[in-house]
Design a protein that fits this description.
Layout (H helix, E strand, L loop, with lengths): L4 E2 L4 H7 L10 H14 L4 E4 L6 H6 L4 E4 L8 H8 L4 E5 L1 H8 L9 E5 L7 E6 L2 E7 L4 H7 L4 H8 L9
Parallel strand pairs: 1-3, 4-6
Antiparallel strand pairs: 2-3, 4-5, 6-7
Amino acid sequence: KLVKNVAKIDAKIHKLAGSSAKKFGSGGMKSKILAAEIATNSGAEVIIASGLIENPLKKIADQENHTLFNACKNAISARENWLTHLKPSGKIHIDAGAAKAVSSGKSLLAVGIVSVAGGFNEGDAVEIISDDKVMARGLVNFSNMELEKIIGKHSNEISEILSYQARNSVI
């Protein structure tokens, strides 16, 4: 069934797309919906139409045989969109003071970390947890083993503990 307009890609739309198991091709409608979700979250409108019909662009111009996915009104930055779709390698649990700083767009410092879970390396995506809820995601500047050594430490102590000139911020 053709859906002419999608205001927001939600669970219902994902369900309509079905699975990606196909004999031919590489993902089918499910992959197209995921790509449309990334694009619309970034503020772009997306059209999905058949390329197997004669004059497919004319059909789109004539408002025939396609689905329009509306751009999100509160589009997120490309970086935020990218981070949203990365699989996190670990979790960093933080205290209330660090949660307040992160919520206002500031860097996460080691002094605000309570615990670390999972195995990750510098540059990996991690979830930032406050009050048992994921509050953010970010790319970490330290491995989980390094973070274990500097949990709760002030920035001016980190380089001495790790025996190299380290960054002040964890994320």
